[in-house]
UniProtKB/TrEMBL annotation:
Residues 57-82 are annotated as: Disordered. Residues 64-77 have a biased composition (Pro residues). It comes from the Bacteria. Signal peptide: none annotated. InterPro entries: SGNH_hydro_sf. This is SGNH hydrolase-type esterase domain-containing protein.
């Protein structure tokens, strides 16, 4: 082998690094160009020589002009003035790359929580249930954020239980608010399925599960190899450590279908003879349960949706996470089935929290139209509920060697605000509440970190912080309505719908 030739790659690499290092050190006043095209500056050691974080005042960016001549809404209050708010992270001095990026809009909250506030006040005065549905993507997967929010609301207004749980889930192995195991023989349809048969409509969670048909069609007993699911309470939060009440939701099928219900060792066979599009079976726990197992003996296709764990009164909050969903997929939920769940569950608040999976766009016009249809669908299915659209959280991208707020974030936030204004629902600016530009970078790089190294998804600590911020906003709306003495005025109700 030619020894001199074997050293050529090393010499070439050394020369390349030397030239790049020299260019990054020189930093000319004007960007160099090639054939008239400006070149981005070279920052070879950007990760090593990043400027230190300096605490300064936080900015929330520029307000958006109201569409169609609508009077401009007031600027939102500073996050530090919200009740129950913990101190937030100080903002960093923006780098030149960050300063050049578009600023995210500071949008005000649109009135629209009157139904939810009125239900809370009635529950406080007379008892009763208040139910919340929280729809989202991987940002709430495994009860992230929603578990802490549920616990905070149940501490304020009472309540028990983890809410609606699908028959099986991708998050079962790491969800801490409930322990769930299930057999491997369930057949699943969901929002991502290519074909959705009319005989197996999706449920409110975006899933429908078919248990395996029993091998002996003449048998009315429960055989050993039936499809099953088992639940145990999670131990992270007090209100979810025992089962108080539960309801099984399922679709139509054979009148001979049965389910073997085992609660804390007690076994009882119950019929599944409901013939409606949505049926429910009450599963009481007289002394507070610690284990539930359901084994299904079905003699033909019968969709099973999930189990709702709840209390006799107070707050119930359902986590409806669906990985990779931009929110637009909710249009695949059948209107009739969604309305059936609305009559059964009686929601007072619907939260829609999406953003990280929305495809990049220059205007987000098609996304805006699709989400407006989703909101309209929710209004029809849940006429007794207020609807809250949660704006996109901060998300970082790498520009000139530094992680800064993705320039798409303000564009998507603007589209989400337009959806809220267009459909007359409430809007909460999570981006502004969590700290504005470059918050995600700080959350990743602080100790302990509040987000993962993808600079997009929060961890458990970050989820708790977001839950505290959202709880503070909801509580401020509740307290503000109390000060005005109006729980659900006709004008506010009309605007909210």
């Amino acid at each position: 082998m030619n020894r001199l030739r074997s050293q050529n790659p090393f010499v070439l690499g050394l020369l390349t690094v030397s030239v790049l290092g020299l260019l990054s050190w020189l930093q000319p006043a004007h960007a160099p160009t090639v054939a008239g095209v400006p070149l981005r500056p070279v920052r070879l050691l950007a990760d090593v020589l990043r400027p230190p974080v300096q605490p300064v005042g936080r900015t929330h960016g520029l307000a958006l002009p109201p569409p169609n001549g609508t009077p401009a809404p007031p600027r939102p209050p500073a996050a530090d003035t919200l009740p129950g708010r913990r101190a937030v992270l100080a903002a960093a001095v923006p780098s030149p790359a960050a300063a050049a990026a578009p600023t995210a809009p500071a949008v005000a909250n649109v009135p629209g929580l009157s139904h939810f506030v009125a239900a809370l006040r009635q529950a406080q005065a007379r008892g009763g249930k208040v139910r919340v549905a929280y729809f989202g993507d991987s940002m709430i997967e495994g009860d992230l954020l929603t578990g802490d929010l549920r616990n905070l609301l149940q501490a304020d207004f009472g309540g028990a239980g983890v809410g609606f749980v699908p028959i099986n889930s991708l998050t079962a192995d790491f969800r801490e608010t409930i322990r769930q195991t299930f057999s491997a023989d369930w057949y699943e349809y969901n929002l991502m399925s290519d074909h959705l048969p009319a005989t197996c409509p999706l449920g409110v969670s975006g899933h429908a599960f078919l248990p395996r048909v029993v091998s002996n069609a003449d048998s009315t007993g429960i055989v050993a190899d039936t499809s099953w699911v088992a639940f145990r309470p999670g131990q992270r939060f007090g209100p979810t450590r025992r089962f108080a009440q539960a309801r099984l939701f399922y679709g139509p099928g054979s009148r001979r279908d049965q389910v073997l219900v085992t609660t804390d060792g007690h076994r009882e066979t119950r019929p599944l003879n409901g013939a409606e599009a949505l049926n429910e079976l009450a599963l009481p726990f007289p002394r507070g349960g610690r284990a539930l197992r359901l084994a299904f003996a079905t003699h033909g296709p019968r969709p099973v949706y999930g189990v709702s764990f709840e209390g006799a009164q107070g707050i119930t909050l359902d986590n409806f996470s669906f990985r990779s969903n931009s929110g637009v997929l909710l249009q695949r939920l059948p209107a009739a089935q969604l309305a059936a769940f609305g009559r059964a569950l009686r929601y007072q608040l619907i939260i829609l929290h999406y953003g990280v999976n929305v495809p990049r766009d220059r205007t987000y016009a098609s996304y805006e139209q699709a989400m407006a249809r989703v909101v309209g669908q929710m209004k029809q299915a849940f006429p007794e509920a207020s609807i809250l659209l949660v704006g996109m959280s901060d998300k970082s991208t790498r520009l000139d060697g530094e992680f800064v707020t993705d320039p798409q974030v303000p564009l998507l936030l603007a589209a989400q605000q337009r959806v809220a204004l267009r459909t007359h629902v409430a809007f909460w600016n999570l981006f502004a509440a969590m700290g504005g530009e470059n918050t995600m970078t700080r959350w990743v790089e602080q100790a302990p970190p509040l987000a993962h190294n993808d600079y997009t998804h929060v961890n458990a600590l970050g989820g708790r912080r977001m839950a505290e911020l959202l709880h503070a906003y909801l509580l401020s709306e509740y307290q503000r309505a109390g000060k005005t003495g109006a729980t659900e005025p006709a004008a506010a109700t009309a605007a909210a719908r």
